Structure formats: C-alpha cells, structure tokens
Amino acid sequence: MKTLLLTVAALLVARQAGADPLRLRADAFASAQSPVGLLILQAEDSQRDWLDAEALVWTGVTELDDSGTGDALVVTLRARDPKGRGEARVGRFLVASGAIMPRHIDGVSARGRLSSGSELEVFGGLPVVPRFGVDAYSWLLGMRISHRLSEGAAAGLSFVHERERGFIADEEVGFDVALAPSKWLDIAARAALDLVDDPGISEARVSAAARKQAWRFEAFGTRRSPSRLLPATSLFSALGDVPSDEIGVGARWRAAPRLDLWSSVAYRRVEELATSMMDAGIAGVNGYELRLRSALRLDDKGKGVVAFEINRQGLDAYSSWTGLRTTTRLPVTTRLLLASEFELVVPDHSHGRGAVWPWGLVALQWQASSEWEAAAAVEGRASPESTSAVSALLRVARRWGAP
Least C-beta-crowded within 10 Å: which of 66, 221, 346, 381? Predict the structure, then answer.
C-alpha cells in the first residue's frame, strides 16, 4: 500500500516594523516577507521502501501589487539500495558533504559504500536560480571520499568547484577527521580551505572531549569567515554569530539522573566588527563569551524538558550584551505536546535601539490519530533589525494507506 504524507505549512501572520526579520524556525533557505506559505509533499511506498520523493514549495504575495509568487525549494526523487550500499538523488536539493559549505543545487548526487569501510559521494548540477531560471554557463561539481581507518577513527576529504557564467566563482577543499583513541576520549577536527581570490582557511574547528563518570570536559577552537554564517534561528544566534576566531573550554556535569549542567568560557577575536552607529567597522576586536546552562528532564525518556541559559558576550561598546533564555517541552497528554522558547537580551549600550530585546516562540503539537497530526507556532520579537514583529506557523499533516 502506498502512503502519502501531505504537509501544509502556512505563515498566517507576519507583521513587522523595520528591516529583515529573524527567521522563523523551519525556514531553512530564505527569509520570507509576509504573507507567505510553505507546501510540503512527501511520498513513499511501503512495498518499495527504496524509493521516495519530496517537494517543498514556497508561496507568497508581493507587497507592491499583492500579486502571487512562489518558488520550489526542494523537489527530489531518491532511490536507496535495500542493503544500505548507497543511494542516489535527482532534482533540487541541499547537498552537505563533509567540511565544505552546503550548496543548493538542481542536479544529481550519488553515494556508495564499500565493505572495506570507504564511502564515495559525487554530486553536480546547476546552482539554484529562483523559479527554475537559467544562469548560462554556471555549474558546480563536487565529491567526498571517506574511510573508516579503524573502529574508532575515520577521515574524509571533500572538494567542490563552482563556476558562474563561465568564470570560477568558488573552489574549496575540506578535511575532516574523528578519533576515539579510548572509551573516555573523543577528538574531532575539520577545516575548509578557500582556493579562490584570497586562499586560506574559511572555516576550521578542533575539539577534544574527555569523559569521567558524571563529568564531560571539552576544549575547542574555531575559525569562521563571513561566508560561513548560518541563518538566524533566534535572537542569541543572530547577535552571537559573527566571523571570528575562538578558543575555549567547557564542562558538563550530570548532577542528578535527570539534571544536566553545562558551562563554557571562550576567547574571541574579531578581525572586523561592523557597527550600526558608523559606516566603517571596528578592526581587531578582542572579546569573550560565557555560557551557563541547565536542563531538567521531566521523565526518564526525556520527552519533557525544562532548560535555562545565561549568556554573556563582550566585544566592544556596540556588541556587548547579556542574555537569558528558557526553553520547555511539556507533554500535556499522550497526544498533545507544548513547547516554548523565550529570550531576553540586555545590551550594555542600546544606542537608542531599546533597553531590552525580547524574543519568544510558543508551539503546540497534536497527534489526533494515527492518520492526522497538527501543529501551530507563534513567534514574537524585537531587536535592532525589527522594532516589533509577530509571525505564526500552522502545519497540518495526514497519512493515507496502511502502515
């Protein structure tokens, strides 16, 4: 019997004053102005579980003339080997391979696994142009090869070459390695090298973690360029995600069977910090980041969680702030789940942008039956970019066919 999962996600309300809003969670590709909607179609066959398809389409209305608009973010057909030896995809999708930066392409990808522990992935196609437009002589090719060196060691090498209108737009090599020399020690490292324009490291991370009974200690170092910044999914990520070099240490303590405590301290070096008070940025800023976090699981399986976090970031007068964050996930009944996230950021110097910047998200999920599921979320915020903004998300899903 065939099964079809239909998900309709519509942003019902989006009202704001100011510039681009922070992104609503689940928007992985674009910051969308109101009113917009998201249509997700997924299809699979229980008799042929090696084949499935997915489509994710953005729809909206332009602000100038209220005309309809839209675009396909994902349209893929995927085939998997039943024995787990590989898979292939064709269509429009996001490809993330090792340490290199993810790409949004119209193309194909194939991955194969060997009994020796090696894995090879190749992908290629055209960089995505809105509404399936054509950008002549623009294309990209990439690959990743990885090998399991032993039971506790694996390494990978990635490469991508991209051209825009016939000229080299990007070329990147990535390395990643993971080691577990003992049961109590994990070591991981990855780095991406930009081979075009200004050759050098565009992103790198090294970490070592040691475990002993209820304790876990970690030392880490990162380097990230502006091209590696991720979409903002909360006020903390929007304010703290800046191109920088960072080195720090952290610790986690399982204080009780259901209570975990985290803390970390890091030194940050920002080569150039843009400000909203002057056209030029500030070069060579030294700063720090402090985090304290606790999480209490409300049941043995961790279905219910209450977490609290304090974040302190100090760079300069324009970018130093203290933030508080609370998150909850509460199963009200066996079919009803309530989740919330709230943040308050207090800048050291507001410069007329507000003394406190709040952000919050409340979501509700209801499993009506084995076929029907519904979820809704409301987000509100105020920040340097948005004086005020409210967004809402509604998701309804139904499954047809025998399980």
Answer: 66
